[in-house]
Amino acid sequence: MENSRPDPTAPTLRHSIAPLIRASRNALSFVYPALCILCDEPVFLGGRWLCRACFDKLDANHRNRDACDRCGQNRKLRTCTCHLAWDFSFDRIVSLYDYDETVKAIAHHAKYQGRRRLAYDMGRQSASLVPASLWERIDYITAVPLHWIRWMKRGYNQAEAFARGIAAGANREADFLRNVLVRHRYTKTQVQLDKSLRRENLKGAFRMHPRAVGRIKGKRVLLIDDVITTGATTASCAQVLLQAGCESVTVLSMARD
C-alpha cells in the first residue's frame, strides 16, 4: 500500500506565500509606518517604539549621567550622600537612566498601557549599558515581584519583563530565575509616601518562594526593578533574600528618580 503521509520536505502553502506576506507587511509599514509612542512621529528605521528624536533623548539621558558607583544617583542633579548615610542591606544600585520626562513616559506605557513587550525591549536594548564588571559578580537574576491582585489587573509584571530583557541582552537568560520572591501582602501605592512611610508600608510584604531557597543559598543575586525612588521596595526584597542565605544582592533599575 502506498504511503499516504505528506512529504515533510515538500514546500507547504505557508512557506510558499511567506515572502509575499513579508513584502506586504513591508509595504504597509512604508505607507502606514509605526508611530512613536511618545510623540506620534514615525519610528526610525529598524525601531519599534520611538522616533529618532525620542531615541536620541533616551540615549543622551544615559550618556549625560554622572552616576554614583554605590547609590546610582546622578551627581549632576543631586548631591550624593551615600558615603554618610548608606542604610541598605544590598551592595549597590546601578540605574541606567534618570527618571526624566522621556523615561517617565516610557515607564508609564510599560506599566499601565499593557505594553509588556516595551518593558522587555527596553531591557534588551539597555543591557549593553550595564557595566561589564557587574556580571562578573552575579550568579542569578530575578525581579521585584508583583502582588497577584495587581498582576491580575495588569496581566504581567513590568519589572520582570524588563529583567528578562536585560538577561536576554546580556546573554544571561539561563541565569534568570522567576518566582524567587513572593509579594504575599497587598500594599497601597507608594507614590505619595516618604521613605519612612514606604518602609512601614512594606513591612512583611515579601517572602521567599519555598522552592527557591535552596537554589539561591550562597549565591550572588541581581535584583531588578523598573524605577527606584527611595529604595524601600528593593531594600525589603534584599533583606528577605539575604535572610534566606544569599551571599550578596545588587540592585539594577531602568531609572533612578
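the 2nd protein, sequnce then structure:
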Amino acid sequence: MDLYFYLERDSPLHRLHPVAKIAVTAAACTAGLLLARPLHLAAACALAAALLALAGALGNLRRVRVFLALASVGAVAVWTLVGRGPTPLWLWTTREGLAAGVVAALRIDLFLLAGVLFLSVARNEETVAGLGRLGVPYPVCFALATALRLAPMLVGTGWSVKEAQRARGLDPDRGLPLARLRKHVPLLVPTFLSTIRMTHHLAMSLEARGFGAGRRRTSLLAYRFGRLDAAALAACAAALVAAALLRRG
C-alpha cells in the first residue's frame, strides 16, 4: 500500500522551483478565500483538476475522492442546517444557508485539490528548500517535512498492526459498528508504541549527525529560477488579481 502522494514525473509542474510550487499552492488557497460565488469557485476547482491532470496526478485525486465527497456533503449539510436567511427553503432551512454550504464545500474541495497537487509534485527536500528560501527557519522547515513524512508512516504502522491482528484471528472489520470500534481500541497501543520507538530512533539519528551543531548549512540539491518559474509566479499574481476583482464585482 503506497501512502505517499509524490509521483516521479517529468511534467512542467514537477520542474518548477520549490518556491514556485509553494506559490502556486498558496495562490490557489488564497483565491479560494477571496472567491465568494459558487460558479467562480467551481471554475477554480476545475482549473486545479486540470493542473493535476497536467502533472499526471489524477490517480492521487481518485485516492481522496471519498474524503472529498464526505467533506463536501458535510459542509453543505452543516451550513444548510445552521445558516440563516430571509428566503425559506424547507422547515427552518433557507436558500441562503444552502448557498453558503455550497460555497464552503467548494472552498474545501479547492484547498484539498491544491494540497494534493503540491504533495504530488514536491518532494520533502523541495519543501524544506522552498521554505528556507522564503526565510522560514530551518528547524521549522525540518519539523514540517518530518510531519509530512511521518504521517503516512503512522498510517502504515497502524495498517501493519491491523494485518498482524487479522493473521492471529482478530478481524477488526467484521461485526456491528460498535463491535468494530471496540476491536480497534487494542490496536492503538502497539501503533503508538511503534511510533514512539520510531521517533526515538529519529532523534538519535539526528543527534549522531550533528543536527543543530552549526548555523551555516549546505545543501546537496541546487535549484535555480527559470522562465517557467517566472511564468508560474506571473500566473499566480494574475489569478489573485482576478479573484480580488471578482470578489469586488
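The mean pLDDT is 84. The chain is about 70% helix and 0% strand.
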